[in-house]
Amino acid sequence: MSIEEYIEGLPKGAVRARKDGTYTVVPRMRLGQMDAALLHAVSRAVEKYGLPGVRLAASQRMMIDNVPEVALREVVEAVGLVGDCFAHKVQPCLGSAGCKLGQQDSMGAADRLERVLAGFTLPAKLKTGVSGCPMCCAESMVRDVGLFGRKHGWTVSFGGNGGKRVRKADILAEDVTEGEAFEIISRALAFYAEHGKVKERTARFVERVGIEAVKDAVFGGER
Ligand code: SF4
Hints:
Elements (H helix, E strand, L loop, with lengths): L2 H6 L6 E3 L5 E3 L10 H13 L5 E3 L5 E6 L1 H11 L9 E4 L13 H12 L9 E5 L13 E6 L2 E6 L11 E7 L1 H18 L6 H8 L1 H9 L4
Parallel strand pairs: 5-6, 6-7
Antiparallel strand pairs: 1-2, 2-4, 3-4, 7-8, 8-9
Bound molecules: iron/sulfur cluster (SF4).
Iron/sulfur cluster binds next to loops.
């Protein structure tokens, strides 16, 4: 099997070719977390192959850079699971589980949101940010779908984007329960799935159809 075929068989984004001919391996870190076994496995791989170390990406992922082609398969096997476990990226902050400012359980909500999103096939990749308070450390307002907690519930946002054409998300609802938030997100995504163009991210989608159309689809006559 060629190296290209081998990479093709891995989860999308698990191994990335670099300009210098080496590769970056991305261990699986669900919700930005690593256990001791994964830490040891990564450490052993870096030592064994004399790699410069690891790098943390803004997306809460660890990157093992400069892996030569001859060592690629062994490094992937050494760290175990690689790539994202779900198609859509969920980025949480620590929230009320560990942050003194946390007003809602963002880790728990992110865990459940990931499973809600797994049921959707969407026009483009989807990034989400789940923050435990309005400080928005998980960058909720520049994500396709955002949640941030306040004392009385969750704020739900939609259509945000970072990158070269930044768009601040629109607020769909405030002070809703987690269940209500997921229902709102599911309705917005169903509308996006039906009317979005291929590779059209939510920011461009909202700019094209208008946020009122999204709100109509989500709330109908309820608002
Ligand atoms: S968003 Fe709020 S709860 Fe989350 S890490 Fe930042 S300050 Fe803490």
